[in-house]
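Run log, item B.
One chain of 212 residues. Sequence copied directly from the ordering sheet:
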Amino acid sequence: MIPPLGRGTIAYLPWSVLRGRAREGADRKSNCVWTMNDSTARLLKVARPLRRQSSRLVVALYGRGLGRVVANWLLLLTTRGRRSGRQYTTPIGYMSADPSRLHPSPGTVVYLFRAAPGGADWLANLRAQPAVRVRIGRCHYQAQASILRGEGQRRQALAGYLYGHTLPARAARRAFGLDRARPDESIAHAARATQPVIVALRLDNPTPAHGA
């Protein structure tokens, strides 16, 4: 049985891009100033129920053994509630350099990002308890989460986002201000910033998912 959804789901869809557009007049050098105009705020309010239903649909696909339909860009992240102790599952877009994306090998590192500061339970939960569970396609993995803070660590993930072709990669390019026309400059700038947050998950101990 898949645990209940956590707040801050569907962090991978264009909602991340939409929030990025709300940073009107933000100073990209500080990369910390976030503002939101009225039209964007209204659109986000209307979109929340749709995000919740989309999350349930992704979880349902995985629960029925159809996770491979979305596994090339969506994983299920299960964290333990920092206050409740309950387990929560969140569908999130990810990026991996592993060519066998549907069946990542042990030791593979995949990356998640959170465009908006705060607001996501999954991020707060893994900060408190970095030992998490991940499902990609037909496999469950034990994983250790870490927030990438060093410039060198962030550079490696950002390079993957810059040249990736999945929807999470496209959303990340807008969120981080990455530009293929000036790759070195845009990666260097995003690597020095502290927002958006990048999370690395090291996958270990794969086991076949029940009913997959």
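Observations after the first pass:
- The chain has one domain: 15-208.
- The chain has six helices and seven strands.
Flagged for discussion on Thursday.
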